[in-house]
């Protein structure tokens, strides 16, 4: 596959290729706006297949039955989530890989009924607000130097880029980050909310407080805080904050041989 430079012309081509793909998160829009992520094609002059790469999330479009499409099926990465596919892709992947293709349910949440007053009240109830810090430049630089940190800013160009475009908060005790809520993706439509708390510190209200801080900042910037839940616990937290459950969809991933 060949990197498809995100010029205006190429983004217009991608817009047409992905126009019928279901939008379940901001991954496609981020590439169409040349904000974050990469696009890959089989041929620069006359592309038949298109891949949007927001590792670990992938989105497929184009003619999967073409020789290029069939060849790409042999290259599909393992343990990466296939989020949205145009017609024919799922059936072709199922035929090629059988039981190696696994389903993963995910859950959409709508932010249309969020109340800033409710978010602020939830935030104020947290008993350790002094432990919550915004991700500033020095903290972002530290996160960029640490590999495999649970706060993953790799979709941003740099720490400076995150400070310019991103939003994030951490919960710290004695200079140790124990939890974080941050924008993993950003585009004109909003941010993609990511929240993580280390196991020993869950069920203490930390995720609620961090999410409230992130949502307040997002709304203050006029950005929709998009919440795509990976598990029932995430749905419960979203609903506690005022999101509305908007439906379930299925993502897929490949097991190794």
Radius of gyration, in Å, reads 19 Å
Our count of domains comes out at: 2
The CATH architecture category of the largest domain equals 3-Layer(aba) Sandwich
Q: Summarize model confidence as the mean pLDDT.
A: 96
Continuous helix count: 9
Strand content: 25-35%
Question: First CA to last CA: what distance?
Answer: 22 Å
Spatial strand sequence of the major β-sheet:
7-8-9-10-11-6-12
Which range best describes the helical content: under 10%, 10-25%, 25-40%, 40-55%, 55-70% or over 70%?
Answer: 25-40%
What would you call the structural class? alpha+beta
What overall form do the CA principal axes indicate? globular
Q: CATH fold name of the largest domain, please?
A: Aminopeptidase
- The H/E string reads EHHEEEHEHEHEHHEEEHEHE
Q: Please summarize the sheet with the most strands.
A: 7 strands, mixed
* Name of the level-1 CATH class of the largest domain: Alpha Beta
Kindly state the number of beta strands.
12
CATH superfamily of the largest domain: Gcn5-related N-acetyltransferase (GNAT)
Oligomer description: single chain
Low-confidence segments: none
Task: Explain what you see.
The chain is an alpha+beta fold. The protein folds into 2 domains: 2-105, Aminopeptidase (3-Layer(aba) Sandwich), CATH 3.40.630; 114-241, Gcn5-related N-acetyltransferase (GNAT) (Aminopeptidase), CATH 3.40.630. Helix content is 32%, strand content 31%. It has 9 helices and 12 strands. It has helices at residues 8-17, 27-32, 67-73, 89-97, 116-124, 137-145, 159-165, 206-220, 232-241; strands at 2-3, 38-41, 49-54, 57-62, 81-85, 101-110, 132-134, 168-173, 176-187, 190-197, 224-229, 244-254. The chain has a 7-stranded mixed beta sheet with strand order 7-8-9-10-11-6-12, with helices on both faces. Strand 3 and strand 4 form a beta hairpin. Helix 5 runs antiparallel to helix 8. It is globular, with a radius of gyration of 19 Å. The two termini are 22 Å apart. 37% of the residues are buried.
